[in-house]
Write a structure and sequence with these properties.
Helix content: over 70%
Radius of gyration: 33 Å
Structural class: mainly alpha
Number of helices: 13
Number of strands: 3
Strand content: under 5%
Largest sheet: 3 strands, antiparallel
Mean pLDDT: 85
Order of helices and strands: HEHHEEHHHHHHHHHH
Strand order of the largest sheet: 1-3-2
Shape: elongated
């Protein structure tokens, strides 16, 4: 009994405040060590003593921790603040950080779901393809799903030819030329005109850049595009673009006096 009489009226021990607030005594000791919540007094026997004011302060610490504040933020930026406006400003800043975390987690979840869908569509376990899909998801490449259609040889070629930056540049070039082909077709530009031939050269140069001059890759790429499993929206866009691309390339090769497809088969 003597032990409890030593505690002055209006004070609580660390055990009592820990029980009231649902924390551990060790947590209180840690907050004291970090300069967040020191006891208001010490008993004659050296016990930490807390007041109702300390409960309010502890509640603030626990609430801010739940919001995502670090102990350094709480100690250095929040606890010393003296006006509601000051606290509101810091809370606004932390709200922005939380929103960024939510956006990041939402994006991560989206990538996980996209990878899961690709894994289920593939006919075999292929961790190299999984890794490529993850990289392309991180690049925000909307054509990550193409990877499952490529064979290992083609993927090895792509890995050796392109890194993240050059891969994005190449994809943008492809999409631009696809849109340009549709524009020229809609405008009624003859495939054999100077504008059509200029387009054909740019398109063929893009193909050579992708294949590195290996014409053996062309049938594989054409086969992928004709597959029933290929994305139908992109397939429709490519079909529409091909209405101009095919005759433009034909006129371009005719002017050069070459047939790259025939050269590959002879």
């Amino acid at each position: 009994m003597e032990k409890y009489r030593a505690i002055p009226q209006g004070y609580m021990t660390a055990g009592a405040i820990a029980k009231k607030m649902g924390v551990t005594v060790r947590a209180l000791q840690h907050y004291d060590k970090e300069g967040l919540l020191s006891p208001s007094a010490m008993s004659a026997g050296g016990r930490r003593l807390y007041t109702d004011k300390d409960i309010i302060k502890l509640h603030q610490i626990l609430s801010l921790k739940h919001l995502g504040f670090s102990l350094d933020d709480i100690r250095d930026r929040l606890i010393p603040l003296g006006t509601p406006a000051d606290v509101a400003q810091v809370l606004s800043e932390q709200a922005a950080v939380v929103q960024e975390k939510i956006a990041s987690l939402t994006e991560s979840l989206s990538r996980i779901e996209a990878l899961k869908a690709e894994v289920l569509e593939m006919q075999s376990v292929d961790f190299k393809k999984y890794a490529d899909i993850i990289v392309n998801l991180e690049m925000k490449n909307d054509f990550y799903w193409l990877i499952k259609h490529f064979d290992s040889e083609t993927l090895d070629h792509i890995r050796s030819r392109f890194d993240k930056e050059s891969g994005i540049v190449f994809l943008q070039k492809f999409l631009h030329l696809q849109d340009e082909a549709i524009r020229l077709q809609d405008a009624g530009v003859p495939a054999g005109s100077s504008e059509g031939l200029q387009f054909a050269k740019a398109y063929w140069d893009m193909i050579l850049e992708f294949t590195n001059g290996d014409a053996a890759m062309l049938p594989k790429l054409m086969q992928i595009g004709e597959s029933d499993e290929f994305n139908q929206e992109l397939k429709q866009m490519q079909t529409k673009a091909n209405v101009f691309i095919e005759p433009a390339l034909g006129a371009y090769f005719s002017n050069l006096g070459i047939n790259p497809f025939q050269e590959e088969t002879t």
